Model the fold of this input.
Amino acid sequence: MDNFDSLFTFYSQYRVVVCNKCQIAVIPAQVEEHLRKQHSRLSRQERHDIAKRCQSVRDIALVESDVIYPKPCQAPLDTLPIYFDGLKCTGEDTQGKSCSYICRTPCGIQKHCKENHSWENKQKRGGNVQAKQTHSANRLWECDRACQRFFKKGKWQRYFEVAASSLKDITEHTTNQKHLFFQAQKEDVKKTASDLAEAANIVQGFDNHRSTVVPWLRETGIVKHIAQLKKDEIKAAIALPSSEGESEL
Done:
């Protein structure tokens, strides 16, 4: 499993890649930036290679219009957070097709209904503000719908409804999310330990080493020769050959 497969989940049916640790889909053109900000333990070359691999994935959505969204009857995706305060539009388009728009703020759903369904707010202004309902009586939407979203940025951002209303659904989804999160953390720890071991095995220089008090070591050019070499390589180079099977030694 390479870095791409350990960091991301690719949903071919939706044409998106989701970061398992950050629990959000990433725009292919912004993968390298995402890795630099959120996964700084990766080297520049690793980030570049992962971004290149992501953009080369077959059928991945390179523009927002290519994204395919789940149907409302489908179960939530394990790699994404689930929200239960969704406001779903119940209006219809000019062809009589049900509207699937969903968001999470009263202002957002009202704006959508006004612009797309000529909805008018019948709730009077002024009066007792505290006594007023959050949603007007003639609202054109349903409340408390379960929803998720792939992206957080700009025109890519869009919520979609999912089928998750029972305690079993919620518990199972939370359990799966925890597993994916801790698996990502485990990969981080493993990578960090590997990087530290690799760094410790490389000769960094003699400036702070006690050998600097012996001038002839520098005169031999040994400092320049072994700088950045691995310590186990140096030990192997100066080790005596094994006497096993060599009766003449």
Notes: DSSP finds eight helices and seven strands in the chain. The mean pLDDT is 78.
